[in-house]
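DOMAIN: structural biology
WANTED: fold as tokens
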Amino acid sequence: MKSLFFSLTYNVLTRFVLLVISMLSVKILSVNEYGELSYILVIASSLAIVSLFGGGVVVNRNYSIGRIDGSFELANKILYFNVLVSFIVSLVVLLVMLVFITDIKNLIYVYLLFFLMSINGIFEGALYGLGKYRDLGVNSIFTFLLSIFVSYILIMELKVFGALMALIVYRILMLLLNIRSIVKTKIIKRMNMIDVVNDKKIYRIFVNQSFPTFVGAVLVTPVMMILIFILKNTADGIDQVAYFAWNNQVYTLAIFLPSVLSGYFISKISFEKDSARLKVMKYIKYNFIFGFGVVTLLFFLKTKILEWGGKEYVINGSEAYNYMLLAIIAYCLNSAYGSYWISIGKFQIGLFVNLIWATIVILLSFILIKEYMYTNEVIFISLFVGYIFIFILQLLFFFNKRKLFL
């Protein structure tokens, strides 16, 4: 129970920091400024998934397995290798960004954000796999208290760039504390990178685990970047991005429990594989109950939440809010399956499901915007339809007795 408490503390506070920064931003900034900030953050988040390259999940899984075997040599090599890959991919992404982003200040902020997010994702995965939930919880408490104070000052003084700087400060603090926690375990030893790079087993794990996880994640996260880009190119595009982004902050907070507990579930299921099927059904039930409760609460808080942003958000974000509630329920039904496929080594199923989901969401959003002139509500409509479809698909996979995706 302690491990669950500290895992929740870490994930709640890390999400709550982002929510508070967003709440301050939507209150202090104009609609246009908040739309610009949201657009930059979507780009940074999407690029972080690219530079992470599936490392966090795979590191988590292999340290969990190492706890069973009592040996961490392979897991340590996987950690080092994934950090190296993330460095290389981040540099490649930076070179590509130089072609498309002419504003150097924006370029620096985007790069620092996605690079820090991806590196911290790897070390966070290691701490989860090692079962160091208490360290994660304590780190998040300290970072939360310091970041909130700094964020208010920066946003008041520097507006959009102040909000970006506040997020960078938060990411740096969290990364340093997580690295300190890992070093303190004395499990992770210094290694010769040449030995790591020359180990053929690492490449097999990378191809069979990291790469499918990476492709699956790339199919999911940049979907939002594509949708935001489509939305931005409508009439009053950057304002529409702002209206969607405020609702999306509520959506992100609402799904925090099933989404952020995925790392905890992966660790638990990987550690206790014999009861994996029973556990995933239990997690689905809990997620659905949680989602239904949150949606009920949000339904009654709708006016208050939209009014926080201002009258424009009440007028232009109300319909999207309703569809957001449906998307929350649909997400909660699916969340546990993502942890299950990874934990039992069926990365290909997760990849296939993500491909189907991404295709549905992008095509439906494009059609609704271009053909039927929908605005910011279109994204939540597409998310709901996509999640319901893949939930049915994953049920078929789960109860199919034949071996799939060998």
